[in-house]
Amino acid sequence: MQQKIVILDFGSQTTQLIGRRVRELDTFCEILPYNKFPKDDPSVIGVILSGSPYSVHDPEAFKVDLSQFIGRLPVLGICYGAQFLSHTLGGKVEKTDSREYGRAHLEAIDLSNPLFKGFEKGSQVWMSHGDTITAIPEGFQVIGSTKDVKNAAFWCAPGKVQSSLQSKAAEPSAKFKVQSSKGVWAVQFHPEVFHTLQGTQLLKNFVVDICGSTQEWSAASFVDSTVAELKEQLGNDRVILGLSGGVDSSVAAVLLNKAIGKNLTCIFVDHGMLRKNEFQQVMDDYKVLGLNVIGVDASKKFFADLAGITDPEQKRKIIGRDFVEVFNTEAKKITDAKWLAQGTIYPDRIESLNITGKVIKSHHNVGGLPKEMNLQLCEPLKWLFKDEVRRVGRQLGMPEHLITRHPFPGPGLAVRILGDITPEKVRILQDADDIYIRGLREYKVKLSGEEARRVLQAGVPTVNCQLSTVNSDEVEVSLYDQIWQAGVILLSKVRSVGVMGDERTYEHPVALRAVTSTDAMTADWAHLPYDFMAKVSNEIINKVRGVNRVCYDISSKPPSTIEWE
Predict the structure, then answer these.
(1) Other C-beta atoms lying within 10 Å of the C-beta of residue 389
(2) Is 190 one of the annotated active-site residues of the chain?
(3) Domain housing 333
(4) Do 341 and 436 belong together in one domain?
(5) Residue 266 catalytic?
(6) Do residues 232 and 371 share a domain?
(7) Digit-coded pLDDT (tens) for 183-197
(8) CATH number of the domain that 46 lies in?
(9) Rounded to two decimals, what is the model's pTM?
(10) CB 532 within 8 A of CB 479
(11) Of 24, 29, 30, 79, which is the active-site residue?
(12) Which of 29, 129, 156, 190 is catalytic?
């Protein structure tokens, strides 16, 4: 039986990051809405309560029935999770005059407590809360304090939980008898973010030492178990998989190919708006990997249907409609297929539900198949985060350039051309984008400290990727691997005046875009070196016919989005 940690999501933007950190400890975890704790599941070895945008005093604040697990399983409350525990069990949570946000240091730590094993006094942590705990519940003890936050960390030891829960509880639901006695820990800081320098150590102490994880979840174990499951699930059935050239669908294809071999048929549709030479390069990669791929050049159809269309949403709808039409036409030729495989990953499924369990947005990889296809759905990567998908790809022997590809929009370069789409505009953008992306791959930078930690925790390959929990070694990465996503935007509705030699030019400007992120839900613009930007700008203007000006987008998400359309 596979052990797992349950993370109850109260709506924090960093909940998925908690999940990733637990997985990095070779331990399976499941993120669930705060009110969906799996009762009577013997595989659960511990519970983590996430942060939340709410205050415990808000009428609409999310609450969980603690009797389902507290005292029976080890519990760790993070930020709102800590405040909810304190508020529910008889402590006091109050508004602060100002938000406690940013770096802080644990000036007082109980180093004998198992949660802080391996910590150093003064260890840096990251705070982000508007309320603060002014009094902890009876039976609990403070084990960590910063200059401004006395109750930064506290716990109730195993053997003392029951008495605490039954005394002065703020909620009737907290008054219950426990089956056994497990400890409860709470921290008002965020151990999951890279700013908390020993955050991984804290989570390891909880997951491995306190909860007893045997650390058997790994890329290798996932490949072995998933291949066995796919063989049993699919048998000798034929399976169709739509490829995009991206990481998720490519890894799904190789995994399925390992399980069912020739019974997998992949379809790769070229809508004419991929990156320069990408269709052929990706087809060559798939051939080397031994995949059975049908490549379909449908660019003429897409360009014809997009002619004169300038509205971004209309462009997306046309591309989506045409893609389904082309894919279905090819899929119907495989008359004996019974399954449609997709590269759905865990964040796709999490983002398609809100924390009440209701659908808040549909994801292109979640929840639906064209009815006329009459196929069953197979999602071999549905439990993996993006960085885990890359690790599985490496385990499967896939080439690094395919595994580390940046996310790329389904409509391709169409959403990076402001205005109508023509083959000539796509050619201009492909040439500029090729120079930019190639430059990002070739330019190497050395990182240390928090920045090195952030990059390594994203699963980036480096020359030297060993980091201690306190002192960071120097690492070297390409600019491409340091950032989440990059691309060029063609402002085709705009022309600017320039000078080339003795002649004036009247051509298009382009904007370079590069962002750092962990999940694309929020993103910051990447601070690229000036010498790199100067070199790329000069090369684009001199080599790309139709461009005479290069700009750099320094907008973050929010309020902007990563893509311009």
Answers:
(1) 23
(2) yes
(3) 219-403
(4) no
(5) no
(6) yes
(7) 999 999 999 988 899
(8) 3.40.50.880
(9) 0.81
(10) yes
(11) 79
(12) 190
